[in-house]
Write a structure and sequence with these properties.
Order of helices and strands: EEEHEEEHHEEEHEHEEEEHEHE
Helix content: 10-25%
Structural class: alpha/beta
Distance between the termini: 15 Å
Strand order of the largest sheet: 6-5-4-3-16-15
Oligomer: single chain
Strand content: 15-25%
Number of strands: 16
């Protein structure tokens, strides 16, 4: 049996070096050791090392979206066994491949934390929001690109229920986007905004359309926004809030994480994600396989940094090992 594994060390300039390292051992009764088969790449994986995502700069590793096989378990683990196919935080009981599975965890958990753990639009995805409750989400324009002959975003919304898409690259810039959002509200109050971009003018656009006394804005990059109405509650959504010992209770611009037990919240949402993968209500994101195994990590992260992947083009995934 092999005694070493490959580690990809990501540097400030997004170059990557590959090193041999000992295979970890179980050091706590509740731990699970996973042999990673496929890892998904996220913007945080290069932003953290580049010094852009400073609130989690002490995180020891990247590659949060993983799919693989349970290698060993601690004595207190009861729901997993060596040989189980798993992805990130929940058991992979769906007939999905490892590449499909590696696209799901981070996106599903970040959305869950933002909508239900922080802004608390409802108690959870099993509850309906009050009638005609507007929600603004800001996402990459790559979702406007075609997937299966139509824009990917059109596969995710229901225009019959009032969903609509506004391209923030329209002529007129931020002012035009603000006007388009306000026109779409038709006099209704906007109290919730989830900004998954959190760069440049994106957060400011949110503050210009949110109700100044009831607005709740959650970002994915901590920052102090200038001159926003005092009645708008600003927070930051971070997946790290699901772990014990999370140190990001405060950050520039407001609270980070969720109230109560993030660990319990993560357990409940992960179970639900697993079930929805199984019954088909949750689909994998389109993905692009980075060539070269571990050696392909650098190309994938540099592609992310340059904006060459995302949305309908596919999420970069790296196949680390054979099954």
């Amino acid at each position: 049996m092999a005694s070493t594994r490959k580690e990809a060390h990501i540097h400030k300039d997004t170059s990557v070096t590959i090193h041999d390292a000992p295979i970890p051992t179980i050091t706590h009764p509740s731990q699970i050791l996973i042999k990673v088969v496929v890892a998904g790449c996220n913007p945080k994986d290069w932003k953290m090392q580049a010094g852009i995502l400073t609130t989690i700069s002490d995180c020891p590793n990247s590659g949060d979206d993983i799919a693989g096989i349970v290698h060993a378990i601690g004595s207190a683990v009861t729901e997993f066994r060596p040989g189980d196919r798993v992805t990130a935080l929940h058991k992979l009981s769906a007939p999905a491949g490892f590449e499909d599975a590696a696209t799901v965890p981070m996106g599903a958990l970040m959305a869950s934390i933002a909508l239900f753990g922080i802004m608390r639009i409802t108690h959870g995805p099993w509850s309906k929001a009050p009638a005609k409750t507007p929600l603004l989400t800001q996402h990459s324009p790559a979702h406007l690109r075609c997937w299966e002959r139509r824009p990917l975003v059109e596969t995710l919304i229901d225009r019959a229920q009032g969903d609509l898409v506004i391209d923030y690259h329209v002529k007129g810039g931020g002012d035009a986007v603000v006007t388009a959002i306000k026109d779409s509200l038709k006099g209704r109050t906007l109290s919730y905004a989830f900004d998954a971009i959190s760069e440049k003018d994106s957060p400011i656009i949110c503050t210009r359309v949110l109700d100044p006394s009831t607005g709740k804005l959650t970002l994915t990059l901590p920052q102090k926004l200038p001159n926003i109405p005092s009645g708008i509650e600003q927070t930051t959504t971070m997946a790290g809030a699901l772990w014990e010992g999370f140190k990001g209770e405060r950050a520039p611009g407001g609270k980070v994480g969720i109230e109560g037990s993030g660990r319990d919240f993560g357990l409940a949402m992960s179970r639900l994600v697993g079930r929805w993968l199984l019954d088909g209500r949750l689909k994998a994101h389109p993905w692009l396989l980075a060539e070269g195994g571990s050696e392909g990590v650098e190309g994938a992260l540099k592609g992310l940094r340059a904006g060459r992947a995302g949305g309908a083009e596919g999420k970069y995934v790296v196949r680390i090992a054979v099954e």
